[in-house]
Write the structure tokens for this entry.
Amino acid sequence: MKNNFKNIFNTKKIGIIIYGRMSSKRFPGKVLHKVYKSKNTFQIIVDKIKKEGLKSKVVVATSNHNNDKKIVDFCRKNNIKFFCGDHENVFNRTVECIKKFKFKYFVRICADRPLFDIYLMIEMVSLIIKKDLDIVTNANPRTFPKGLTCEVAKTKIFNVDQKKLRKTDKEHIFNYFYRKDKYRIYNLKGKFNKKFLKKNFCIDVKKDIKNIRNIFYKFSKIKKEITINHLFKFN
């Protein structure tokens, strides 16, 4: 699977963009906060991707704001590609990033989601290629718990007149496409109960660190990989 998917990422020019800024209102600097075994969320996510031989496809998309120089320094130190763009307009940051790296498809990952499931990403990439879709998501509507969201998209759909974007579209970069009927969008459905869907696996505030850390400790103890299906079964 590793070599096969590496070839697909190469031939289809697929990028993996991890979005992160230091300026979270509720938890500033959360993306560089140590979560587990002295690793921050960027490190945890990149390590998962690295195991599949795809680290070279990763780009950290941060902003050109002075505070985010810490993220740039982290990327340089760890040999991770990065892009600095508009601080508030994430849509435009995405457009400029995919242009620079000449991606034809990209996976969107938020850096506050350290439990990101690499196998979900692989399933979504398979679907977008096989079915020739514009977007594969599990957030339109949300069918997975918070913190386990993933989206894959063709980059050419981002060639839109940004004057037509609402203010919220500039932050939530897929909302514009979700409102339009002309895009081929596939929403991946999960077979989860309501209790599981209400869980939060995202780092929004500082107390969330403890919850995520406990999950890492628990899965280390039971010697299970942290995947969505295992979270549903064991958490």
Observations:
- The beta strands are 14-19, 58-63, 81-85, 105-110, 135-137, 151-154, 185-187.
- The chain has ten helices and seven strands.
- The CA atoms of residues 147 and 202 lie 4 Å apart.
